[in-house]
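Example S7 (structure tokens).
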């Protein structure tokens, strides 16, 4: 009998295993594909590795205006892919070692909950067996959505993000369906490598959770990409994408390859949610703030909950669940940690990057706040101008509650945004006000010292 059986070895599954293993719990972790899940194998890490290669390429080509001339700059896609594989494999080996340190038993197979405390495991290549446990954590992740668009399925020219990570040549023309994070990152990657990229997005703006004033800044910064907003795809023939504009005008993009990136759906089926009567819908498994599901002694964490499909959210959900599981198994009391959703940052690792945390202006107003905001173009930063030129696009925006000065949101487009955004997490988590931010000393010259200038603007208006 194990203390805990974990279904899925992605960020949620392996982080929970690490935490519970460190507490001396006996853990069985079942993973049907590869340790590291979507994030490590076909998500966060491979995309960022390729985007880094693209960044080197772009910098080498653009270096001349900064006094560095490289002749006949080329890239080698096969080598980029090989480096991506090496990074992924080494990091995966690190997770395997971490599991060994925590004495976690890792099984290569598929897990299905039979009943409470009993999990059927079908090993890859062997017959099923039943394992008993005192608690279960469901961390089965999510999968790409394939819409019922004629021509989208079984079309070798229509790939999902996993397929795009294995292409052997850069397509001359790429059509990306979906202007969310994944679509924009791939659009940026392939546009940087020379593809003519068109993004077709059904909504009126890209990156739905991005502040309405900043999304256009990001689009303008990626000026080589053609953005078709408010356009609904009707069919795909080969790599020809037919869509209708908001006005009902029928248009088409002729491409050589199509990326379908309209979103991901929690994996709520196939692991026994129904047999336990767990409250779940296609939008995810319902959980409380300790990640408990509606079934006793069954927790869920990560993308499967549908709450926030991001790896860092998965990590935190797993930590909260692990603490609760350990405490329940010890004395039945339950963990002190609670999952908080208000200050979860997001980042788009396009060239340039974008990141944000907390509320957009629209969101704050819809929640009844009267807001005071400040937006500053990044060219006001000496470092940004020096590194990107005076025409480069980028901006920072601070959203505060006019009544109290409390910081509600921080949003940015420009270099290092993904690295700087954690500062915004602290501001929001600690419920700091613009006047508190003005009191802080930030390093100069940095791009994101402008956050403090934005606070000053709010203070002075
Ligand atoms: C292209 C792309 C780029 C991304 N980039 C980022 C990024 O930059 N930053 C970020 O925060 N997030 C990013 N994400 C999202 C991130 O990958 C996910 O939020 C994260 O992986 C969720 O972790 P998880 O553990 O919940 O699920 P997953 O990582 O999906 O892991 C779930 C695991 O469970 C296994 N599994 C499922 N069912 C069973 C079963 N019955 N038995 C055994 N095993 C099972 C699966 O094989 C899988 O390995 C990206 C995603 C994609 C697709």
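Recovered sequence:
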């Amino acid at each position: 009998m194990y203390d805990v059986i974990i279904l899925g070895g992605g960020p949620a599954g392996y982080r929970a295993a690490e935490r519970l293993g460190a507490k001396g719990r006996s853990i069985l972790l079942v993973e049907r594909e590869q340790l590291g899940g979507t994030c490590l194998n076909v998500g966060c890490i491979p995309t960022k590795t390729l985007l880094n290669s693209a960044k080197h390429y772009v910098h080498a080509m653009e270096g001349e205006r900064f006094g560095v001339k490289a002749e006949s700059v080329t890239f080698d896609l096969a080598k980029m892919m090989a480096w991506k594989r090496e990074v992924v494999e080494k990091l995966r080996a690190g997770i395997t070692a971490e599991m060994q340190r925590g004495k976690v038993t890792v099984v290569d197979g598929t897990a299905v909950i039979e009943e409470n405390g009993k999990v059927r495991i079908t090993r890859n290549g062997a017959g099923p067996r039943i394992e008993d446990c005192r608690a279960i954590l469901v961390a089965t992740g999510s999968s790409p959505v394939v819409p019922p668009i004629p021509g989208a399925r079984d079309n070798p020219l229509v790939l999902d993000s996993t397929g795009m990570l294995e292409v052997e040549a850069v397509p001359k023309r790429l059509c990306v369906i979906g202007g969310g994070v994944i679509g924009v990152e791939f659009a940026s990657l392939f546009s940087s490598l020379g593809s003519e990229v068109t993004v077709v997005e059904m909504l009126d703006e890209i990156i739905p959770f991005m502040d309405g004033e900043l999304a256009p800044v990001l689009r303008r910064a990626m000026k080589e990409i053609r953005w078709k907003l408010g356009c609904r795809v009707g069919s795909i023939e080969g790599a020809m994408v037919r869509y209708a504009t908001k006005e009902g005008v029928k248009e088409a993009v002729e491409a050589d390859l199509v990326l379908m990136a309209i979103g991901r759906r929690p994996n709520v089926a196939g692991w026994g949610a129904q047999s336990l009567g767990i409250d779940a819908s296609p939008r995810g498994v319902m959980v409380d703030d300790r990640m408990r599901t509606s079934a006793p002694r069954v927790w869920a964490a990560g993308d499967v909950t549908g709450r926030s499909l991001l790896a860092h959210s998965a990590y935190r959900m797993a930590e909260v669940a692990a603490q609760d599981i350990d405490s329940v198994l010890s004395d039945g009391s339950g963990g002190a940690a609670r999952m908080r959703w208000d200050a979860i940052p997001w980042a788009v690792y396009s060239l340039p990057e974008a990141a944000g945390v907390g509320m957009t202006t629209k969101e704050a107003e819809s929640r009844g706040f009267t807001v005071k905001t400040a937006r500053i173009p990044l060219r006001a930063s000496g470092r940004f101008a020096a590194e990107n030129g005076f025409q480069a696009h980028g901006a920072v925006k601070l959203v505060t509650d006019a009544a109290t000065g409390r910081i509600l949101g921080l949003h940015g487009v420009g270099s290092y945004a993904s690295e700087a955004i954690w500062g915004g997490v602290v501001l929001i988590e600690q419920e700091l006000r613009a006047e508190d931010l003005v009191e802080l000393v930030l390093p100069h010259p940095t791009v994101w010292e402008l956050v403090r200038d934005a606070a000053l603007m709010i203070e002075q208006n």
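Notes on this example. Residues 7-13, 30-33, 37-39, 43-44, 47, 110-111, 139-142, 161, 182, 267, 270-271, 302-304, 309-312, 314, 349 surround flavin-adenine dinucleotide (CB under 6 Å).
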